[in-house]
Amino acid sequence: MLAKLSQQFRTFAKNECENSSPLYEHLAIKIADDDELLNIATFIPQGQPVPNLLLAGVQYLLSSSEDELVHFYPSLTTTPKALNEVYPVFKAFVLSHSDELKTLFQEKLVQTNEIRRCSYLYPMMTEIYERHKKPLAFIEIGASAGLQLGMDQYNYCYNQQLHINNSNSDFVLSSENRGQPLPASITNTPVVCKRVGIDLNPIDIHNEEELRWLEALIWPEHQQRRLLLHQALPILKELDLQLVKGDAIKLIKDISKEINQDAMLVVYHTHVANQIPLELRLELLEQLKEISMERPLFHCYNNLFDTQLHQDFMDQGEIESIRIMERPDGHARWFKWSN
Q1: Three-state secondary structure along the chain?
Q2: Does the pLDDT of residue 127 top 90, yes or no?
Q3: Can you give the pTM of this predicted structure?
Q4: Where along the chain do its domains lie?
Q5: Does domain 115-335 have CATH number 3.40.30?
Q6: Is 248's pLDDT higher than 90?
């Protein structure tokens, strides 16, 4: 058990934190060799990304603490102390707060709401709208706080030159497209008539304590992600979002029946399916096929059976692949558009 957990932390350090979070990379490498902390990590429920939940739990507790460890987190201090001194302080904090952490592991989920992922979803939505000329009905699986449900309201900047303005806000999502040119439809804002998010534990953006958890999921060095979250909230609070608590696989058929037939249904999820057991992923696909017997729909997703980004059209139980894009950056700093 501990050997498997140790490998998870090493993989996390190498594949996710390298060139992104020096603090988490350093901590994950150290935790991988520390049986005492790995033992605490065994209390994390199966299916949850262990390193993410442990580190988010610590940052969450730190956000209302005056512990010495605060001084090593760029998210909590303007002049963080040197990395090479952090681990003993980190370990002492985890050991002294192990009961609180174990409680958090049971109550909280890794549901990072990475708003920048809208940068690669939005071009798909403009294309779908242009092709079918029907208002779009969004259903997001694993919606967390529903930040991606507002993607048609955000401004975008691609490769520091292509500007898409959908609002008068100063809020802009910037991303680099390393692939083929984006579709011409991107300059036309799609009409969205319904925004439904399904999550096992939806985050209420009007609840300060829940927002604090959302912030704790953002890595310490990622100040811009934190800023984007706060800039998006006023836009999102003006929208009619329907956040549904429960299992999407069980609920999605009933929810789709409530959506006007004149709308084009778009079901999407990013960095969620890897937390779902394989047999349930297959079941989700079956549910979508059944819905497509009644109405056509689009399915945009990654991590279902591979790490690539897919856009499928489903009609009468048949799946047509519209595009497959190489695995984008986890926080959508870049992606590779494919026509």
Answers
A1: CHHHHHHHHHHHHHHHHCCCCHHHHHHHHHHCCCHHHHHHHCCCCCCCCHHHHHHHHHHHHHCCCCCHHHHHCCCCCCCCCCHHHHHHHHHHHHHHCHHHHHHHHHHCCCCCCCHHHHHHHHHHHHHHHHHHCCCEEEEEECCCCCHHHHHHHCEEEECCCEEECCCCCCCEEEEEECCCCCCHHHHCCCCEEEEEEEECCCCCCCCHHHHHHHHHCCCCCCHHHHHHHHHHHHHHHCCCCEEEECCHHHHHHHHHHCCCCCCEEEEEECCCHHHCCHHHHHHHHHHHHHHHHHCCEEEEECCCCCCCEEEEEEECCEEEEEEEECCCCCCCCEECCCC
A2: yes
A3: 0.85
A4: 2-107, 115-335
A5: no
A6: yes
